[in-house]
Amino acid sequence: MNNVKKVSPEAELDPRSRDLVFQMRGVSKSFPTPEGPLRLVLDDVNLDIQQGEFVCLLGPSGCGKTTVMNLLARFITPTSGTLLVHGEPLVAPNPKHVTIFQEHGLFPWRTVIDNVAFGVQAQGASKSDAREKAIKYLELVGLQEVATLFPHQLSGGMRQRVAIARALAVEPEVIFMDEPFSALDAFTRYRLQDEMLRIWQDQKTTIIFVTHDIDEAVYLGQKVVVMAPNPGRIEMVLPMNIARPCERTDSQFLYYRREIFKAFQLVHEWAPEYAI
Ligand SMILES: Nc1ncnc2c1ncn2[C@@H]1O[C@H](COP(=O)(O)OP(=O)(O)OP(=O)(O)O)[C@@H](O)[C@H]1O
Q: Going by C-beta distance under 8 Å and a sequence separation of 6 or more, which residues neighbour residue 275?
C-alpha cells in the first residue's frame, strides 16, 4: 500500500511538542487471566495523534481498540512503553478529555437540558451559565426543541446526540468515542456521522473514534489506524486524503475503502476494481 505509514519505534519522542496530543512508543498491555498468568492483549503500539485530528481505530472484535482508547484516556496504564500527552507522561485522566460510549449513559431522571448542563456545572459554572451553554450545544446538534424532555422520550439517535452535546458542552480538548453509533439503524448512523464531521470541522476538537465499521472509519477518519488481533497490534496507519465532507460514492472514498478491505483480506481474487 502506497499510503501506509507506520510510526517506527525508533521515531524519537518529542517531549516539547505541543501539537502532538498523544505519543505512544512501544506500548504494550497485558491483563491477568482467570488461570493466573498475564495475557498480552496489545503489543508494541506506536502512534502519534496531532491536535485537532480525527483518528479512527478500526479492527475486528478483540484487537485492542478499546484498550488503546482506555490507555490514551488514562483509565488504564501501559504494562510497558511510553505514553506522552502534550509531551508529558500521563499521570491521571484529564478533565478536558471526555468519552462517549455506545450506551450514551444519560441520567434518566434528568431532562435533556439538565443532562447537558450537568458537566458544565460540575466544572464550577453557575446553574444559569450552565443552562445557557447547554442550550448553545443542544442547538448545535439540533435538539433545542426537546430540551425539557427526558431521555426515555427520545429516539436512540436523539439520545446519542444529547450525549454528544453533553460532551461538547464542557468544551473538551479531546473526545473519545467508543463505537458510539453501532447500536443505531443505518440511516440514523449516516446522519450522525455527517453531524459529527460538521461539529469536528466547526470545533476543531481532537477525536479518537473506535469502530469496527470500515465505511464509517473511511468516512470520518483523517487517519485510520488498522488493527489486528492475537495479540492486538497496529497493522498500519492510513492517512485518508479525502476532501471533507465527501460522498460515499466518490472514487476517493471507494479507493480507500477497497485498500482497507484488502488489508483485512476481504477482497476476492476475482473482484474487479471498486466492485465491493
Ligand atoms: N480489564 C481486562 N481484563 C482482562 N482482559 C481484558 C480487559 N480488557 C480487555 N481485555 C481483553 O483484551 C482484549 C482486547 O479487548 P478490547 O476491548 O480492547 O478489544 P476491542 O478491539 O475494543 O474489541 P470489541 O470491538 O469487541 O469491543 C480482549 O481479548 C479482551 O478480552
A: none
Is pLDDT of 232 > 80?
yes
Q: How far apart are CA 165 and CA 170, in angstroms?
A: 9
Where in 33-122 does DSSP place strands (E)? 38-50, 54-58, 80-85, 88-89, 97-101
Provide the grid cell at 133.
451553554
Per-residue pLDDT at 267 exceeds 70: no
Read off the pLDDT of residues 87-112 as tens digits, 9 standing for 90 and up.
888 778 888 898 988 776 899 999 99
Q: What is the ipTM of this complex?
A: 0.97
The grid coordinates listed for 69 are: 482508547
Contacts of 19 (CB under 8 A, 6+ apart): 50, 51
Q: How far apart are the first and last CA of the chain?
A: 18
Distance CA(92)–CA(89), nearest Å, equals 10
* Mean pLDDT in residue range 117-124: 90
Q: Is the beta carbon of 62 within 6 A of some atom in ligand 1? A: yes
pTM: 0.88
CA trace torsion 187, 101, 225, 90 (10° rounding): 160
Nearest CA to ligand 1 atom 28: 62
| Nearest Cα to Cα of residue 159 among 106, 199, 100 | 106
CATH class of 1-94+173-276: alpha beta
* Ligand 1 site-directed mutation target among 27, 28, 29, 31, most atoms within 8 Å of CB: 31
